[in-house]
Structures are given as structure tokens and as C-alpha cells.
Amino acid sequence: MKDVFVTYNNIISALGFNTTSNIEQISKGISGIKKQEDKKLMKNPFYASLIDTYELDKAFKKFGNGKIYTRLEKMMILSLHDVIQQSKITITKKTALIISTTKGNVDTLDSKSEFPKERAYLPELGKQIQHFFGFENEAIIVSNACVSGILSIAIAKRLIQSEVYEDVLIVSGDVVSEFILSGFNSFQAISEKPCKPFSKNRTGITIGEAAATVLVTANKKYKSDDAVKVVGDSSCNDANHISGPSRTGEGLYRSMLAAFSEAKIEPSSVDYISAHGTATQFNDEMEAIALNRMQLNNTPLNSLKGYYGHTLGASGLVETIVGMQSLYYNTLYASLGFDELGVTENINVIKKNESKELKTFLKTASGFGGCNTAVIFQKAM
Amino acid sequence: MDVIQLLYFKKQCNLDKKQKINSYCHITKNTVFINGKIIVQENEELTFSEFSKKIYKDNNLSYSKFFKMDNISKLAFLGAELIFRHTNILKQDDAIAIVLSNRASSLDTDRKYQESISDESNYYPSPAVFVYTLPNIAIGEISIRHQLKSENAFFVFDKFNAEFLNKYATVLIKNKKATTVLCGWVDFDNNAYEAFLYLVSQNGDVILTTEEINRRYQNKN
């Protein structure tokens, strides 16, 4: 089967509007998470990683009338535009558009929204993005909870290998809304302080918003300097509980197992793990158990939630892009918010930035519905 | 790494063999069709809640979690239940992937949840409702019921897209991610609902094509 690569990319987040500016902030240990006082989103002050609305609208100005697009659509258009421009890709019948999102424009259900409620249908979001860029194919929307972003890469790779499409542009995004904040709050899952993944002092998640885009292709002419090869991938359900992770990490363990089996490499050859690390008690514990079952307890690992918060449908893609930069710059980035290990099994959480030759990384994610995904990437030669 | 080898071996497929339609199930307007035959037809006046409860009882189901599910999960759950009762495929196999799709995502439940937070004087967000505001929860419910620790994906399209689902199911089997794929459409939107599920595997009488699937879908049977 042909080699498939993840190449040109972009991140729109509180840390910046392109990948380079995001990495600059991460390398300085700067987080996008800030104390927010916006009563439209939440009654009491809360922590979240939000994109500055003024900056977003300013950046969008050159693309036309900002009033006819929702916040999420603007983020996605900006992100996708950057990747199309960098890669100079020609969009043809063989180019697919994948949109990864959990809630799309759900904020338009609110009676205070200026947009019609029909905009909350995900295919409406799909049409806005498809027509803006003139894609010939209907958008393939992946809505599979918090694994959506990373699962989209697995899906794109499989579709290209089977010659359904030649190139796939994946744009992912979710916005912080009252809907999301009140929901996670009803679960008592939101941390009162910025989240602290894998820490003894963790008290829950911090929500964030972002859009991210990658080009997935087998075409060498679209290979960027920071490109990585997708060498193995899998997604397995826990078949255990719809809102709580498996105590044994079964689905995540099986996902990793199958990804390694496809990649035909040993877990010991992984140089870095970009974990999910939401900073809830159960999730982080489950990940530590699954990683130990896979004998990955000594491999350097981080969660990027300390920089971005949990960006839901975007998180897997944002974190893959940061992982690509780790390989490109041969740098392990500190897992922000981590102090003392707070899971029962040992794992090697990265405490400070470190230069190191890196070739292979593993990205994992888990989400509601019992879903898990693992993808292994290698530096493209 | 014996387990890795075992896992790989288990999902070997015959690359030359074509994928087949093993069985299919259609539930809409208070009627259930299995492999083209009507097996249940209830009065259209019944609400979905009444109808789904009747299917549950008539099939002697004993699964209390069913009553906690939202509408789309109940619909997907019943579709999977009935299709697995009418197939020769071994259910205990870990290699049955689930690939579902629809138009309205989880909007039916999203609207209920939105109602619970829109009035400050009547604010009652519930975690039991919030958890169902994701379409793939329906896949989770089927996975739990049938103990399928397998590949999942939930796609959203403007309308039923047999071409894409067939291609993706074939990709999963050929790439050794699964040996069987439970795929289809499960949509619930403002009291209108429709489930059309089919099993794709290398065992079956009819070769999987977009035309064959669309014909079965459009005949609404």
C-alpha cells in the first residue's frame, strides 16, 4: 500500500493564527487559558482558552462579509485558506474535504443567536465551507466525540490508500459555547483552575476553542518540510460505558495494539507520546493503565490541554500538528500544568522542554461513547 | 508481541473476494422491515416512545439501560438488535465495525438540552441529557450491548450516502480493520425518524454496490 503523509498545516487558537506562532508560544511555556468573565457563556468567571473576537474578525476582513459567517465558520475558513495557500493544492474531483467537529454551530440554537436555527445542522456548516473554497465533493463530516480530529486522519489515510481520493483536506473546529460549558459543568467535570493533566492536583478539564487544518496526501509534490508519514492507526470502542472510560483502558489498549500491528514496529521505538490527558480523574488514570499495558511507561509523554484547554473536535488535529513540530524541531515540549504524578501507574510526563532526536510519535485520544483512537506517525524522509 | 500477531491474523480477509450485503433492516414510520419483509407494522399514530417500547417488549428484551437512552440511541439500538437476530454472522466477534451516519447529528437531543439552559429562571442542565448530545453515543450503546470492542465512526451527510458508506466499509475490511461492518443511516429529527442498517461482510448472496443498497433503501424495505 502507498505511503500517506500529513503535510501542510495550520492552527487557529488563542496562541496564534498559524502553526509557527502557536509553537513559539508553546516553546515559551505560554498558555492560551485565561480567566474569562463573559456572562453570556457562564454566570460565574471561568477559565478557558478563547480566540480573541476582535483579532478573528480583523483577520477575516479580507475574505468578505464577516456577518454572514458564524464564529466557527470564520475560524475554519481562515485555517483552511492558510493550508490551501501554503500547499498550492489544486482542488479536483479527487480532493476530499473532511470536517471534524463535535458540536458545529450548536450555538445557533440559542434564541439570542443572529443566525437561523437551521445553521445548527452540520451539513449546513459543510456547505458553507465547501462552497467558499469550491470543493466539488460534499464535505465528509466526522462527528465522533473527542476522537474526531485524530480519527479523521486515520479515515483520510485509509481513503487515500484505497484510492477513493488522492488528497484530503481535514479542517476541524469547535467553539466554546454556553451549551458546552453548562454541559461539562453539569458533570462537575470543569476545573476551577487551569487544568493540570496527570497531576495529583488535577480537578478536571478546561475547555478551549480552536480550528486546525492538515493536508493528507500520497503526492510527493505536496510534501512539506515538517511532513510525517502515517504508519499505523486504529480506533476501538471500550464497550463499557457511554460517559466513563474503561477502568482497564481496554479500548485504548486495543487501539494502540492494532496501530502497532499495522505499523509493524515495537512500542519501544516510539520517541514521544502525545496523550489525550483531559485532567479528569478517570481519564488520566485510564490512560496511564493502558500505556502501561502497552509497555509505554518510560516513553516521554505530554498532554497539550494545559496550553489549549480541551478543544473537543479540534483537539486531535491540533495535537497532531504540535507533535509534527516536535519531530521537526527535535524538541519535547513540557506538559504544562504538571507538577506531581497523580495516577497509580508510572508514566514519563515531560517536565521541561528538551532537545532530542525524534523520529516516531504516537497520538492517542479517547471520548464519550467509549471511543478511542491511536495513530503512529514517523518523520517523512 | 504475540497478541499483536494474533490480532492481525484474526482480521485477514480475502483481498480478491468482493464484499457482500449480508442482511439489512429498515425502521421508519412505525414499521420494521428485515431483509425486505415487513415484520412489524404499527399504527402511525403511535409516538416513537410507544412504538420503540412495543418493539422492545415484543422481542423479549431485558435491558433496563434502554429506557435511559435518547431517541436516536433507541432507534440505532433496536436496528442493531433486530439485524443481529437475523444474521448468521457471529456476534461475539470483536471484528464487527460500526459505521453510522445521518443528517441531524444529535440535534433532537441538543434542542432538549438547549431548552434546559435557555431560561435563567428555569435552568436545569442535566448530565444524563448532555451525554446524549453526541451522535456517536448511539454507537457506544450498540458496542456495549453486543460487546463490540471494534472500529467506530459517525459521519454526517445531507442525505443517505450509500456510495461513501460502501467505500468506507470496504476500506475497513480490506485494510484488516474489521471483517464485518454494521453500517447505515440513523436519523431522528423533530419526530421524523429513519434507521436503515446493513451488514457488509465477505459472506452473503448479493455483491455490495451503491445501486443494490440504494434500491433497498428507496424501496423502504
Structural commentary:
The complex is a heterodimer of chains A (381) and B (221). Chain A has 381 residues and is an alpha/beta fold. Chain A folds into two domains: 5-222, Thiolase/Chalcone synthase (Peroxisomal Thiolase, Chain A, domain 1); 232-379, Thiolase/Chalcone synthase (Peroxisomal Thiolase, Chain A, domain 1, 3-Layer(aba) Sandwich), CATH 3.40.47.10. Helices cover 30% and strands 21% of the residues of chain A. Chain A has ten helices and 16 strands. Chain A has an eleven-stranded mixed beta sheet, with helices on both faces. A three-stranded mixed beta sheet of chain A has the order 2-3-7. In chain A, strand 15 (360-367) and strand 16 (371-379) form a beta hairpin. In chain A, helix 2 crosses helix 3 (71-87), helix 3 (71-87) runs parallel beside helix 4 (122-133) and helix 5 (148-161) crosses helix 10. The longest helix of chain A is centred in the N-terminal third of the chain and has 17 residues, at 71-87. Chain A is globular. Chain A starts with a strand and ends with a strand. The mean pLDDT of chain A is 97. Chain B is globular and about 65 Å long. Chain B has a single domain, classed as Peroxisomal Thiolase, Chain A, domain 1, CATH 3.40.47. In chain B, strands 1, 2, 3, 4, 5, 6, 7 and 8 form an eight-stranded mixed beta sheet that branches. By secondary structure, chain B is α+β, with helices and mostly antiparallel strands. Helix content of chain B is 38%, strand content 24%. In chain B, a hairpin with a 2-residue loop joins strand 6 and strand 7 (192-201). Classes of the chains: A alpha/beta (381), B alpha+beta (221). Chains A and B meet through helix 4, strand 5, helix 5, helix 6 and helix 7 of A and helix 1, helix 4, helix 6, strand 5 and helix 7 of B. Strand 5 of chain A pairs antiparallel with strand 5 of chain B.
What are the key terms here?
heterodimer; A: 381 residues; alpha/beta; Peroxisomal Thiolase, Chain A, domain 1; globular; B: 221 residues; alpha+beta; 8-stranded mixed sheet
